[in-house]
From TrEMBL:
Highest taxon, organism lineage: Eukaryota
UniProt name for this protein: CN hydrolase domain-containing protein
Sequence ranges assigned to domain CN hydrolase in this UniProt record: 1-77
GO MF assignments: hydrolase activity, acting on carbon-nitrogen (but not peptide) bonds
Family: Belongs to the carbon-nitrogen hydrolase superfamily. Nitrilase family.
Organism: Ilex paraguariensis
Matching Pfam families: CN_hydrolase (PF00795)
Amino acid sequence: MTHIALEGGCFVLSANQFCRRRDYPPPPEYVFFGIEDDLTPDSVVCAGGSVIISPSGTVLAGPNYEGEALISADLDLGEIARAKFDFDVVGHYSRPEVVSLVVRDHPASPVTFTSASGNADDSHK
């Protein structure tokens, strides 16, 4: 979740399920294959881990693995803009002079040769 917050420059609110074995119907309607003998009604089968993370990667609340809970945090929306200065994946790091995408709307030769001046050399087609 931290990676998503940092790369997206956004707040991440991750709500995850917490449940115990007793929250499911009794066997044989629903069986946890291979581990049913080890489970008690209080056994945790989904550990939760809900968390709130800021655009700078700071954990603001959670993660909670202890049980059902509500987590909350005050969000400073200005932090989104500040995070863009650190890692802006489509802004000032964009380098069209180095990498560009050209889409031709007509059939073309799969291999072409260019000279140092950048003009296509059509004699090799």
